[in-house]
Amino acid sequence: QVQLEESGPGLVKPAGTLSLICTVSGGSISSSYWWGWVRQPPGTGLEWVGQISHSGTANDNPSLKSRVMMSVDKSMNQFFLNLASVTAADTAVYYCVTSLYGRFEDWGQGTPVIVSS
Amino acid sequence: EIVMTQSPDSLSVSPGEGATLSCKSSQYIGSNLAWYQQKPGQAPRLLMYGVSTRAPGVPGRFSGSGSGTEFTLTISSLQSEDFALYYCQQYNDWPRTFGQGIKVEI
């Protein structure tokens, strides 16, 4: 079981880019996990954002209309989410997760992001 | 995309009673189904995967069943710590999708 910790700005302006970092501890980002993001808008359910392997293969949710970019820094044991052209609809708690065979095994504590001017 | 539909939206149960939570997928997903528990202010926690395999540390009062498109999470003899939101998730296809959640409350 790995530990995950999200970090990043809690406030992003509309049309800007949401950028989050997830720091992995207790395990190597070069392991067999995929490294992903799940978000939860206020008072609602869970939405898968996307995930990336340590080698850089990525999948993201088509509902986000190609605004998602993810990357991995093996030297820092971190992975990253960039979500471009944000609107109020992107306001949510963002969780970083480990994905093993499709299930989400480990979760960070979540970081709230508000999109507002 | 595969739509996951959970029912009921909420369930009122007394401690010590059992609860049955339903999850249906809009397409065949085989056994590629997981369940998560989320308490207020906390991240979700993996409870079950592969329909019926409990994640490490999950008590035996939780059990999962079903296949194909219809699935059930059963909690026998609810404890106070079991009152929470429960989500199902399919991982048979992209994008990964969750149900809307079931609130289990007293």
Characterise this structure.
- The complex is a heterodimer of chains A (117) and B (106).
- With 117 residues, chain A is mostly beta strands.
- Chain A has no helices and 11 strands.
- In chain A, the strands form 2 sheets. In chain A, strands 2, 4, 5, 6, 9, 10 and 11 form a 7-stranded mixed β-sheet that branches. Chain A has a 4-stranded antiparallel β-sheet with strand order 1-3-8-7, with no helix packed on it.
- In chain A, a hairpin with a 6-residue loop joins β4 and β5.
- Chain A is globular and about 40 Å long.
- With 106 residues, chain B is mainly β.
- Chain B has strands at residues 4-7, 10-12, 19-25, 33-38, 45-49, 53-54, 62-67, 70-75, 85-90, 97-98, 102-105.
- In chain B, the strands form 2 sheets. In chain B, strands 2, 4, 5, 6, 9, 10 and 11 form a 7-stranded mixed β-sheet that branches.
- Chain B is globular.
- Chain B starts with a strand and ends with a strand.
- The model of chain B has no long low-confidence stretch (mean pLDDT 97).
Number of helices of chain A: 0
Sketch the major β-sheet of chain B: 7 strands, mixed
The coarse overall form of chain A would be: globular
Secondary-structure content class of chain B: mainly beta
Which structural class should the secondary elements of chain A be placed in? mainly beta
Q: Please, how many helices of chain B?
A: 0
Low-confidence stretches of chain B: none
How many runs of DSSP E, i.e. beta strands of chain A? 11
Strand percent estimate of chain B: over 45%
Which series of helices and strands of chain A comes N to C?
A: EEEEEEEEEEE
H/E series of chain B: EEEEEEEEEEE
Number of strands of chain B: 11
Residue share in helix of chain B: under 10%
End-to-end CA span of chain B: 34 Å
